[in-house]
Amino acid sequence: MVDAVEERSTRQNEGVALNLALGVDREEIMEALQGLVGQLTEHPRIVSDVWQNLSTELAAITMGLSSIDAAKEDSRFRDDAYTNNPFYKRIGQYYIAWGRAMDDWLDQIELQGMDDKRARFLLGIFKDMMAPVNNFYSNSQAMKALFETRGQSLANGLKNFLDDLKNNHGYPSVADRAGFQVGKDVAASAGSVIYRDEVFELMQYEPVTEKVSERPFLYVFSQVNRFYLGDLTLDRSLFQELLAEGIRVFAISWRNPTIDNKDWNIDTYANAVIKAIDVLREITGQDQTNVMGLCAGGITTAAALGLLSARGIDTVHSHSLFVNVLDNRPEDSDFGLFVSERSIEVQKSKVQAKGIFDEKDVFEMFAMLTPEESVMAFYRDNWLIGKPPPIHPLLFWSMDYTRVPAGLQCDYLDLAWENKLAKGDLRVAGKRIDLSEIKYDTYIMAGSTDHITPWRGCYRTTQLFGGNVEFVLTNQNHTQTISNKPNPYVKYWIAPELPEDPEEWISLADELPGSWREHWIAWLKERSGEEIDAIREMGSGDYPIIDKAPGRYVLD
Predict the structure, then answer these.
(1) Buried-exposed string 337-376: b where 16+ CB fall within 10 A, e elsewhere
(2) Active site residue 410
(3) Which domains does the chain have, with CATH numbers?
(4) pLDDT of res. 449
């Protein structure tokens, strides 16, 4: 078990923890970078030794005597030219040798603690930025495309660049913006909007089976992206899987806020979830519902369900939390290295003055998480090689960012830095939120390769609730866990106990083949009550149909 997980997750802080990323201050990063550069002058002997060794290796490369295989060490050099063409082979070897020298220098200067971790993180990004494949002339694929297309690839790359400059904040597109139509190709499950207010729309989806489970299910997504991650193309749709099993699906679609909504905060969204629960209970005639919170939506559902518990209201039967961190620790994240009380206050002041954390801010936040995968890979393909942006539903969804109101952004920052939810210090609508008082069953899922909500951080949530808790780890990343086609390589892990230490949990866990979704849906059905005849009419007398799903707010 240990090897199976660790081969996919080799670092304790393999993710960057979304909440902490919100609090990163660029000044902190620049100060750390200046400190790293300053080390060059403080250790001249080490620099001299490293340079001497590098010079020897560079000479060997130039003479064709080096044993460095760039293609094996770095997948960016997988093109045959970096193995067979003498010019490009040496380019790859020079880069690998330089990167080794930089690592050797950092090892020898022996920085301690936080300084060492900061330096290694920044050096990794610096090396990625300096990769020769990021230069047109030293990118063999770009040059090959230039000659094979007689210059058309260069024209295509320029066209892509100008389009992104106009439509994507100057960053390379990760997907074709015209590749899918919301409501037709994605978010296409049949349903109706049966409630709308200024904060959210509530969708009810049409049953596809003759019998359905009596207890309804509410899907609550993050406020940072659009809700339809759970309802991409029909072959990837979580909603379709649930409907096929007779689950009565309701979903919240958040309105994309404007500066006029700057005061919306965790109270606003928690009360919205409670309102949605009240509406679907009236429509279905059921006293209780099952609730699921995904990513930052899990913070919202935890706050809402904690508020219901504090009020003594028993309208929830079970709670599912997917790829979500409620107990924040700086050590989970590389970006935790650059978050301080000062940086938190700086970011809060900035967003309060602006009133909104807009789409560009959100995009750059995610781009900072993994710049090589999120930006540079598409820079090379789209701009240097001139490829069209890929047509892929998951990538299309990933570009559909929303804004975050200042009030909620500040609450996220406080939750991340002060860890209020885990400590029981969060107050919503005047009530203290104590998750240990939530006694019904909770199901927690995390992805072993998730770079947004590290799985060990997700695991700690198992210690917060007062009822029975199930934790499942799957070998997928943040978005694949929710929207993925059947895959023979998918597997998941479950353990009979939930010790406090996630490393101990690893040693106890059993590996199972297949999708975690099958396991969860079986768990959910056990908590969904008796089967009843499916009711085809949407809404009710008090809550009639307003619009067709996916509604209006998803298009704002």
Answers:
(1) bbbbeebbebbbeebeeebbbbbebbbebbbbbbebebbb
(2) no
(3) 43-148 (no CATH), 191-333+403-555 (3.40.50.1820)
(4) 87
